[in-house]
Write a structure and sequence with these properties.
By secondary structure, this protein is mostly helical. The chain has helices at residues 6-17, 21-31, 37-65, 71-92. It is flat and about 50 Å long. The N and C termini lie far apart (49 Å).
Length: 93
């Protein structure tokens, strides 16, 4: 196990999660006076851990069958396409 991979994985996932629907939902729950911020944090953290565990399990299983497919390239092209679509959509309006 190479610990040098921890920082890039952390930064990538952290940046991907900023401002997404999960974070917005958590903000809404935390802003509700009927919910304890500590319990919102615990529940949201547990949900993220569970969904990440599922992603890791599926990714590890899929990795055995998808070694010959350039997944990083496909994902990168997908992110670029989504970014370009977002930029063009902004200027279209």
């Amino acid at each position: 196990m190479n610990l040098g991979y921890l920082l890039p994985i952390f930064v990538t996932v952290f940046l991907a999660e900023l401002g997404d629907k999960t974070q917005l939902a958590t903000v809404l729950f935390a802003s509700d006076k009927n919910h304890s911020p500590l319990f919102v944090f615990i529940a949201a953290a547990a949900a993220l851990v569970a969904s990440t565990a599922i992603a890791v399990i599926l990714g590890a299983a899929a990795g055995k069958y998808l070694d010959h497919i350039p997944l990083k390239l496909i994902a990168g092209i997908g992110f670029i396409a989504i970014g370009a679509w977002t930029v063009f959509d902004h200027f279209k309006a």
